Amino acid sequence: MEANNNEIIKIRLRLIDLIKSFFVRKPDAELISRWRGTFSALSKEQISPILDKAVRDLNQQLANKSLEDIQDEYYSLFVDPFGEHNVNLVASHYFDGRNYGETLVSIRDIFSQSSVTKDNTVKDPEDSLPIMFDLLGTLIEIDKQGENTSAAQRDLIHTYLVPFLEKLKPIIDRNSVADFYAIVIDFMIGYLELEKGLSDFSD
After folding, report:
1. Can you tell me the distance from the alpha carbon of 67 to that of 48, in angstroms, rounded to the nearest whole number?
2. pLDDT of 39
């Protein structure tokens, strides 16, 4: 059972790293190659209906789109501050109607209570989507080392990450340039469905 749990933890951490890789920097040839290899392999597996469909769709997108296509989409959605297609990835924006709201304070409490510190070189606030996934991965790592973080994981997943993506999905689905990243969001939603199942059975 312990070996089985360790394998599940490894898979969770790999998928979280994969999710973070979509947002931490502008995609380059090396990253696109990694994505293509990963989703080609994942497309041969059966995990869950939602996740399997997102994997197939991403695999197809990566086969059909050029590096420049995905780079342009990334720039339009997450970099261009004056573009009409820019998407906010900060939870406070959706929960509180403004950046740096009460949601940020709550997420910082999870960091503090779990003795996790955000890297000072990272400019994004703690309630940004990639930072919250990074926090989830760190909580899983801490739990693996023997300190129970199940409650913090459940709180982060159920209270923040899942509702955040539920608010983000219709916005990005309506975004005319969000071709690849709309499916990335579907992949993240599918992944969190698995996390919800795991967290419901954890101590």
Report:
1. 29
2. 96
162 alpha carbon, distance to own chain's centre: 10
Which amino acid does the sequence have at 182?
A
Backbone torsions φ then ψ of 156, nearest 5 degrees: -60, -45
Which numeric CATH code is attached to 2-200?
1.10.3480.10
Residue 143's identity, in one-letter code, is D
The per-residue pLDDT for range 134-158, each reduced to its tens digit, is 999 999 999 988 889 999 999 999 9
For the record, the structure tokens of 179 come out as: 């071709």
pTM listed for this prediction: 0.93
Structural contact between residues 67 and 30, judged by C-beta atoms closer than 8 angstroms: no
Work out the pLDDT band at 199, boundaries 50, 70, 90. low
